[in-house]
Amino acid sequence: MSWKDNKIVNYFISAKAELKKVAWPTRQEVTRFSLLVIGISLAIALFFGVVDYILTFGLELIIR
């Protein structure tokens, strides 16, 4: 049995070949998309914070 018959070795050889086919993003694309994700996350957090504040305020008005 040679090393080429080993399933683990074949897996890593295939994985390396597939990784060479990947169209990796440029540094500019990574930066742009990362900032987009951070911006959207902050906007959603702000939205839910405002909704939470309004609902809490409304609930306190009802309870009193």
Q: What report would you give on this structure?
A:
The protein is mainly α. The protein has helices spanning 7-21, 27-63. The mean pLDDT is 93.
Structure summarized in a few sentences:
This protein has two helices and no strands. It is an all-alpha fold and 64 residues long.
What is the element layout, followed by pairings?
Elements (H helix, E strand, L loop, with lengths): L6 H15 L5 H37 L1
Keywords:
64 residues, mainly alpha
Sum up the overall morphology in one term: elongated
Give the biggest beta sheet: none
Uncertain regions spanning at least 5 consecutive residues: none
Distance between the termini: 81 Å
